[in-house]
Structure formats: structure tokens, C-alpha cells
Amino acid sequence: MVVDPVPWRDAWHTALYAAGRGFYVAGGGPAAHFTTATHRPTGALLAEALLAVPEHPVRVVVDVGAGRGELATHLVGALASGSRYAAAPGHAGPPPPDGVRVVAVDVVARPPGLDERVEWLRSPGGGALPEQLDDLEDALVVAHEWLDVVPCTVAQVDPHGELREVLVDPVTGAETFGDLLEQPDREWCAAHWPTTTPGDRVEVGLERDRAWAELVSRVRSGTLVAVDYGHTATARPDGGSLTAYVGGRQSHPVPDGSCDLTAHVAVDTLAADTVRTQRDALRALGLRGAVPPHATATADPLGYLAALEQASAEARLLDADGFGAFWWAVRRVGAPDGAARHD
């Protein structure tokens, strides 16, 4: 069967989010194919760090692009117990303090066995958000590895120096040139990722900017944190960053629903108050990854092992060649309940 090539943006969305067959809908979720910082000890520590970001009281915590609820489970456990390590998935403990809600948002139905303290909202997928997610007050909203899977226009400079949309065969992944970019995408590229070098590729960030702006618009007051693979204007990847992952391995991107598809985010184009690497953000919160003194192993062996595990998790989150290279874009909206509000 001959399949006409389509814009990468459309094929990408279908491959990940199509009802009944998209990679995120029909598969076992991201955790079945790769490990992120939200899993296991690093996830528990990350949850605690994220909860330390807001400069206001928090009444609701929202995890957008929640996968199967890994980070949300750590968040609710950290809120409820104050422990450095949250409960394992499926464990039901005390409710979070002072009525703080934890809401997870993803494209699938509520996963079986998810901690009952986590509320669940099903989203349409991509940059779309559920209608119920709105009018949030005193909120902490976390978008961890969400924007990198919001499909965007993929463009390439043709032999004449013009940026054209890249089309792809959804079955084979073979690419061809499409039309010149439409005006909004061309304007975005001119402002944020200008290039006329034949062969250069651009992942146009306009759809990501719009998705982030829509998420911000759902918050009356609070703090939003986008955590993602990314780049800034001084280090755009000439060849683009679109790639695929399946079964724990990086692979050639083919939009047939068999693999995860992701591209790094132009984080400096997001409407944010601060943009910095995860390493810098976590160090500002006091994480160092320092190994505890070995002398404490004799006096307090269990305490030493706990401190060693914490140091290991911190080191992984701070690793400049790993999770530490992620970017944090932080946006603060309005003011805490009872104070004057402004946008």
C-alpha cells in the first residue's frame, strides 16, 4: 500500500496519541521503554526539590505528562510523610497535609494500582489540556518531559537556502521536502532559530510555546516548572534533535506507533521568569551530591547507608552529562491566596 507523505507534526501526533494505537496510548507507558529522573530514588528526591520551588503556600500540585503516575506518587508521598523518599506506587498512606491535592494529567485512563491519593485527569494528548484543568489557585504545576513530546513542525533548509516543511512516510520514515514554511513558523524561526545553510534542520518551537502559554493561562496564582531536554539560542542543534526510543534504546525516528518520538525544546522561547539547567536549579536548592563521611558508617550504619543513597540520587540529578543537563523554565503567576494578584 502506497502512503502519501505527511507533515512530521501530524505523523508524530498520530504515532504517539492516536486512539487505540498510539505509542503512549497502547503501550506500557514511558517506564516500559526508558528510565527518567521521576523513577525510584531520583524521583523521590526530585519531588522534594520541586516542592521547594514555590515561594507561596501550595493547595494543589499538578503533574502534566504524568506517564503512569511515577512523579505524582512521589509528590503525594513527600507531602504526606515529609520523608525524603516517597511511598512505592500502589501504597496508600495518609492524605497530604492541609488538604493539598495532587493531580496527574496524561493521555491514558487512570493506571491500575495508582496511589489512591493521586487524582487523575485524562488529556487529549500533545499540547492539548483537559477542560477540567483550569482556574488553579496557589498551585505548583510541573511539566516534566511534556513539551518534548508536543509535536512540532520539522523544517529543513533546501539547496536554495529556503526553509521548507519536512514530510515523512508514516510507515518507512522516509522524508521529502514539502512547501515553504507558513508565515507564523517562518517568523518564529527568524526570531529564534535563523538559518539559511542548506541541510540545516529546525524543530519549530511555536507549538511548544503555545502549549506552555495555554498551561500558564490555566493558573490564577502559583508556580509552573517545565523540566525538559532543551537548548538555547547559543547552542541550537544544526541537524535538529528529533529522535526515537524503544525498549531502552535510541533508534531511528519512524512515526508508525512503535516507538517514542521526541525533540529537544527551545527553552529560551518559553514565557518564563527564569531558565537554567537542572544542575544549577538544584544546586540553588542546596543539593550537592556529597558523599557522607565514612567515619559515620561505624557510629550509625543505617544512617550512613541512607545518606549514601541520598548522595547517589543527588549526584545523578546533578550530573552535567545526564539529568543535570535538563533545563528548568520557571514561571510565577499572580500571588498567593489573600495577596494582591498580578500577571
Automatic annotation (TrEMBL):
<dbReference type="GO" id="GO:0008168">
    <property type="term" value="F:methyltransferase activity"/>
</dbReference>
<keyword id="KW-0489">Methyltransferase</keyword>
<dbReference type="InterPro" id="IPR029063">
    <property type="entry name" value="SAM-dependent_MTases_sf"/>
</dbReference>
<dbReference type="InterPro" id="IPR038375">
    <property type="entry name" value="NDUFAF7_sf"/>
</dbReference>
<protein>
    <submittedName>
        <fullName>SAM-dependent methyltransferase</fullName>
    </submittedName>
</protein>
<dbReference type="GO" id="GO:0032259">
    <property type="term" value="P:methylation"/>
</dbReference>
<dbReference type="InterPro" id="IPR003788">
    <property type="entry name" value="NDUFAF7"/>
</dbReference>
<dbReference type="Pfam" id="PF02636">
    <property type="entry name" value="Methyltransf_28"/>
</dbReference>
<keyword id="KW-0808">Transferase</keyword>
